[in-house]
Structures are given as structure tokens and as C-alpha cells.
Design brief:
The chain is of the alpha+beta class. The chain is built from 3 helices and 8 strands.
């Protein structure tokens, strides 16, 4: 059974970008040893703009938009040269609890429960080849600029 189409269980305001899909590859999250220099690089060469800059999960996070795509930056040096500066891929979800329950029922290794931070919810999961995924659903109480960044009307 495909869960990609709009599910009437969820109200329309939970769907971002005016689209019916429940899942959107949203961003790559990178470590940055000098976050301001990293921002300047992507602004100069790729017309990036800062959509949000603030504290999240214990560190400064900067959300950049590059065209339709997105990049999040941790204000921290890369921890593991094996993964280089890429920390995870972010997939925006409608119905995060449902996805978590279905993954749990399927026997996937969910090491942590869903976390709630600033009204948003997320959990992390190792995909094949140990690619780290952040599966998240932005909360209705997020700042207007962050809500717009996630595809909701500001």
C-alpha cells in the first residue's frame, strides 16, 4: 500500500508546498567549521539566502535556500572525516507518528523515540549504507519565517 498520496486522516494545513505528497526530500545537513564563511561561499557562488538562523538541538543552525533546494548548517567542525561534512539527509513528513509506527512494526532499528523540539517532531534512522536520515514534521508553532521555509503560508 502506497502512503505517498494525501491521506484524509490529516488536515490539509499539514501538507506543505500546496502538494498532496506526504514525503519531501528537504535538505542536506552539513557541519561547518566556519559557518559564516560557508554561508558567504554559497551566497556568492549559488545565490543562497539565509531563511533562518538560530539555535536548534543545542547548536546554532542556519537554514539556507538555494533555488528550490535547502541546506542546513551546524556551526560545528566535521566530526568524522569518513562521512566528511555531510551529517544527514532531511525528509519532511506528514504524519510522522504513523511513519514511525509502521517502521517500528516492520522491525526497523529505531534507536530513539520521536523527539519534540520547538513544537516540531523528528527521529533519526540509518538507511542502507549507513546513510543517516532525519525524518521530521515541522510544528505549527514554529516562527513564521521557518514555517514559510518548510512550505507553509507565513
Amino acid at each position: 500500500m502506497s502512503h505517498a498520496a494525501t491521506d484524509p486522516t490529516y488536515p490539509p494545513e499539514r501538507y506543505p508546498y500546496g502538494r498532496p505528497e506526504r514525503y519531501h526530500l528537504h535538505h542536506v545537513h552539513m557541519f561547518a567549521s566556519d559557518v559564516d564563511a560557508t554561508i558567504a561561499f554559497y551566497q556568492r557562488w549559488f545565490d543562497a539566502h539565509v531563511a533562518w538562523d538560530g539555535g536548534y538541538a543545542g547548536a546554532r543552525n542556519v537554514f539556507l535556500k538555494i533555488g528550490l533546494g535547502a541546506m542546513h548548517l551546524y556551526d560545528q567542525a566535521p566530526r568524522d572525516l569518513g562521512r566528511n561534512a555531510v551529517h544527514h539527509l532531511g525528509i519532511q513528513v506528514v504524519g510522522l507518528e504513523d511513519l514511525y509506527a509502521r517502521m517500528e512494526q516492520a522491525g526497523l532499528d529505531l534507536r530513539n523515540p520521536i523527539r519534540v523540539t520547538g513544537g516540531s517532531k523528528y527521529f533519526m534512522l540509518a538507511a542502507p549504507d549507513n546513510v543517516l536520515l532525519e525524518l521530521f514534521e515541522p510544528g505549527a508553532g514554529r516562527e513564521p519565517e521557518a514555517r514559510a521555509y518548510y512550505g507553509f503560508d507565513a
